[in-house]
Every structure is written in structure tokens, then in C-alpha cells.
Amino acid sequence: MLHRPDYVFESISDIPLDFFEKEGIDALILDLDNTLTTHNNPVPDKTRLEWFNAAKNRGLRMIIVSNNHPERVKPFAEFLGLDFVPDGKKPLPKGYNEACARLNLPKNRIAAVGDQIFTDVMGCKAAGIRSVFVFPIEYETGFWFRVKRFLEKPLLPKHPKKDVIK
Length: 166
What we know:
This protein is an alpha/beta fold. The protein has a single domain (7-155), classed as Rossmann fold, CATH 3.40.50.1000. Helices cover 36% and strands 15% of the residues. Strands 1-6-5-2-3-4 form a six-stranded parallel beta sheet, sandwiched between helices. Helix 5 (117-127) links the parallel strand 5 (110-114) and strand 6.
């Protein structure tokens, strides 16, 4: 099912780092807004930054794929020292496929983390990689975001309370 994530966590910082090793995941494709930080925020909060640094120190490879334009994604990616794919066109597989090519790993060793069913989860499925759904850091107030969140509501997994559901 294109809308069903493979894994669900409350937030990216709630994903235990040994989870990736247990699941055979060597690299992550990361969504930006509401996954790593709030909309238009130039840096992640302390908790997410600590998680990111710990993941990087464990050797987990990461790249950002965002539907945002380069002027939003580039400074954030540079702050974290990551490669990035802007204008990812999610849910189309284009951005995910480009990220997979840059990671130079088999797709079965890569997962993507994101907060939206209609872009992140469906894009992962279209690209043939595993999807890690996290609940958004905060809900957007813009009209189209509210429409999208309303439409995805019946498809959302239950809050896992830090437990993985598969």
C-alpha cells in the first residue's frame, strides 16, 4: 500500500540508533521541514541536533531531499554538513532516486524519514525504498497544508509512543 509507512516513530529523535543497524539500514534520506526542524527555521532544535550528531558519529550516511527550493535547503544542509536534493518533486521518485544514486548503496540499505503521507511515504514507496514516518514537529497553518493534513488524517498511523510498529 502506497500510503502505509514501513516504520512509525513519534519524532526523528525518538528513533533508537541501533534500530537502523538491526534493520540493515546504512543510509537515510531526510525530509527537512517538520521532520528535522519547523518550517523556515534555519537550524534543528537541540534534541534533533543531538540525535543527528549521534547518528552521524555512528557512521549513518544521510542526505536531505526536500520539495523546497535551494535557497531554503542549502543553508540548512550546509549547517549539518550534508548533501541535498532540492525541488525533490515528492511524491514522484525523482528526488529519492537522485539521493540513492549519490549515496551509491542498494535501495534495500536505504530508508527515508518524513512527516507527510502524500509526499514522503508515497514518494518512498514509488522509489522502492523503506519509509520511516514521524509525526510533524508542528502543524502548519497555511491553507494547502491544512487541506493536505485533513485528507491524510484517515491514513495516519497511530502515535507509537516511541515504539516501532511494523
